[in-house]
Amino acid sequence: MELDAAQLPRSLDDLDASAINTNYALSAGLNPAKDAIAQEAAKSPYVNLLAVREQDKDKPWVAKLVKAYHSEEIRKFVLAEFKGSVLAGF
Questions:
Q1: For the whole model, what pTM was predicted?
Q2: Side-chain half-sphere of 1: how many Cα atoms within 13 Å?
Q3: Distance CA 25, CA 34 (A)
Q4: What tens digit of pLDDT does each residue of 11-58 get?
């Protein structure tokens, strides 16, 4: 049965299983790291990317953004915010 992604957590009592995106699971009070029956591997091909326009790629602010995003502080934030269910892909 196809449902809107935001409805999946609310529908669990009526389903045998469901594939729920992490953001919807967390907002519904689920912890994907503990409540999931399966998760993607850490080497999953699905990662978030930083993208900029071609004409901006060599600008100093882009290098600064990438450096900040790839920091240990952000890695810790991702682990804490997503309760271990999302891993930093850098």
A1: 0.64
A2: 10
A3: 11
A4: 999 999 999 988 899 999 998 888 989 888 777 787 778 899 999 999
How far is residue 62's CA from residue 82's CA, in Å, rounded to a whole number? Answer: 25
Q: How deeply is 19 buried, as exposed, middle or buried, from its count of CB atoms within 10 A (0-12, 13-18, 19+)? A: exposed
Domains in the chain: boundaries: 1-39, 42-90
Query: Which distant-in-sequence residues (6+ apart) come within 8 Å of 70 by Cβ?
Result: 90
- Take residue 2 and report the two structure tokens written for it: 């196809």
Token reading at 58: 């060599």
Alpha helices in the chain (DSSP H): 22-27, 32-35, 60-69, 72-81
Enter the tokens of residue 3: 């449902």
